[in-house]
Amino acid sequence: MPVTFGELSTLTTPLSVVRLCALLFSCLTFSLASFSSQSNASTPENIEYGITFKRFCMVTWCLFFVLTFLVMLIHFIQFHNLLPLSWKNLTATVAALGALMTFSASFAFTWTLVNHQSGTTDPKSIAAAVGSYLTSLAYSEELHLIRSQSDGQQRGYMATVPGLLKVLQVFGGCVALVLINSIQNDQKWRTYVSFITYSVCLLPTVGTVLVMVLDCAARSPVPFDRLLASFSLLGVIMYTINTVVCFSQALEINKDGQKVVIMSETVMSCITLLAYTVDLAFSVKLLCDRN
């Protein structure tokens, strides 16, 4: 089947405009960040944290730049109708995860500028931080437009509250994995508990998102709503244990750099626990309504 290009007017719709803004701001951000000069940090520990978080930021900005570019390209050449997936779920997932990940990258990059640099901050770094926040704002507006579509344009599952909660769970698990890999902890068992928690909970959630994006929920050999409820219950149990472990670890660490990182991990663990709890409530309510 020949490829059919869309009209140029498709690039002037509100949804296309905010995607173009996200492309522009993300390109500007990682370009400025890659060429910005960073002053020496005050301690070797701060240097290590600064390098780790800058890599996380660069990967985030570049990844979502590529994803957004592909979304716009596929939509313009009208190729999405030929793909064996749910286009509405895919675009909602990219927008929601892009808003969360770029915002966390903005926060991490700003933190490295404030705490891990000495002397005068490079103007390119400040501009990169501003560009990252604008990128997050563009993705948030894209998600808002997707969720506020008219009734004639039915939203996908990932644009609903349960779908967005799963995106939040994926986001929390990914950021927490980055944080624990940057912590130098003498008590390795706590790191293992956190790593197992994030991995065990993240894999089923990522699988659920992929099932929704690939539109395979109807092919599940078991009742899919009960499967989702069991995943949410598993997440609530494991993240409750992990949150207690994170709190106890935060109380014992005295180094400023590590304390900030472990407190950030604790906050992410609490947010993800809340997401699993609310998701479990939605799943139980759905099961009760069907019974």
From TrEMBL:
Topology class, membrane: Multi-pass membrane protein
Chain ranges of the MARVEL domain: 10-151, 157-288
Domain of life: Eukaryota
InterPro entries: Marvel (IPR008253), MYADM-like (IPR047123)
Record keywords: Membrane, Repeat, Transmembrane, Transmembrane helix
Main location: membrane
Protein's name according to its UniProt entry: MARVEL domain-containing protein
Species name: Hemibagrus wyckioides
